[in-house]
Amino acid sequence: MLNIENCENVEKEILIEGLANEEMIRQRLFRRLEFLLLKDLPKLTRFCHGNYLEFPLLRTLRIESCPTLKTFISDAEGNSSEIASPTLFNEKVTFLCLEELSIIGAGNWRKIWHDQLSNSVRIHFTNN
């Protein structure tokens, strides 16, 4: 379980690019994570800076009150306009076991997912 809450100055959470053993870190960083909550992060523009990220066991993802969230992962540098994405989750994010996705008061995307999402995922979306 990972809860990231009430951090008013956080703009991005995880930086992977340029680290030694980058590929190994990318594959192992969240390999046992089953629950992720991002809540009350008013300046968060992306969760991860990098090329690709795996969440092999993540079952529940909740994003609440993250109004400036543009995308979940991006390797763009600079200001938030450079990381603007029409989708929250692009092909760079892999959720193999996701069962529940809850988004409350976050972002302004044309699509949540870049591709067809499994029918087994329960989605709750409210944009305040």
Automatic annotation (TrEMBL):
Superkingdom assignment: Eukaryota
| UniProt protein name | Uncharacterized protein LOC108663746
What organism does this protein naturally occur in? Theobroma cacao (Cacao)
